[in-house]
Amino acid sequence: MADRNGTGGDFRGLAESFGGVAAEYDRARPSYPQELFDEVERLSGRGLRGARVLDVGAGTGISTRLLAARGAEVVGVEPSAGMAAQFLASGPGLALVRGSGDELPFHDGSADFVTYAQAFHWTDPARSVPEAIRVLRPGGALAVWWNVKDSGVTWVRAMGERLAAALPATYHHYSATKEIASHLAPYGLRSGKAVLHWERRVTVDHLITDLSSRSYLAALTPEQREPLLAVERAALLAEFPDGWVIEPYVLDLTVALTPARPLA
To answer: How far apart are CA 231 and CA 208, in angstroms?
Structure first.
């Protein structure tokens, strides 16, 4: 299958790899700081409390749980059976619908927000952006964000260079963050951006588990994957001999608003 929105290699194979690592994904992937949701509210001009939110590509529900904690009436949307099962186990009581952003199973004008946390690059923007506009109410907001390891930090950049050299067909560094404006431009949506810097402190083992949940590694066989993880573990322990890592992130957010009134 053709590459999709900044994701190299076999799109379908990479996308389907998440189901087999759903537990690792939920356990080790980074969360999001509350400042992100403050920025979503600021850029959209409305609060999340009481808002109808469709969290598309919800995965195991990391962002969905945080949106619910902000008082949103949120529904997760997830195509993967494995990720959906982990979503339900990790967030009992949260609503989940199986589906994808390219064909949202919701009525026209039924949502205040459509959110994509670390997931928009798995869609076809020519389909997913019109679908988001269709299901949003007038004045609704499409919010798209990515946590990206800060490659301005030496050890992060070195890790990326090693993985890119080892996996040239599939490794990607979320180039979609730079392309989102071009995907929104044809629809005349008013948009705003925010960039947040934050960090988390995790063990080397935790970071390796996080890496194992990345599509470019999850799609490999164990025999292919383990030597690459061993290289990264050794490099991390050389950099952080006490076994604890300060992992820096750049959080890139774009919020696009639909017109306040339906277009004639």
So the answer is: 10
Q: Residue 239: how many CB atoms within 10 A of its CB? A: 13
pTM for the full model?
Answer: 0.91
Chain segment 157-195, per-residue pLDDT in tens: 999 999 999 999 888 766 667 789 899 999 989 999 999
**Over the chain, what is the mean pLDDT?**
91
- 67 by Cβ neighbours in 10 Å (0-12 / 13-18 / 19+) ranks as buried
d(CA 32, CA 209): 18
Helix runs in 118-203, H state only: 125-135, 154-166, 176-184
Structure tokens at 189: 């949506």
User: Are the CB atoms for 228 and 163 separated by under 8 Å?
Assistant: yes
Sign for the CA dihedral angle at 72, 78, 81, 83 comes to: negative
Q: How far apart are CA 174 and CA 56, in angstroms?
A: 17
Neighbours of 133 (CB within 10 A): 18
Check if the beta carbon of residue 250 is closer than 8 Å to that of residue 195: yes
The sign of the torsion formed by the CA atoms of 48, 50, 55, 59 equals positive
**For residues 28 and 24, what is the distance between their CA atoms, to the nearest angstrom?**
6
Please name the residue that has the structure tokens 């690592």: 21
Whether the CB-CB separation of 74 and 55 falls below 8 Å is answered with: yes
Q: What is the DSSP string of 56-70?
A: ET-TTSHHHHHHHHT
For the chain, domain boundaries: 11-149+173-199+249-257
Q: Which CATH architecture has domain 11-149+173-199+249-257?
A: 3-Layer(aba) Sandwich (3.40)
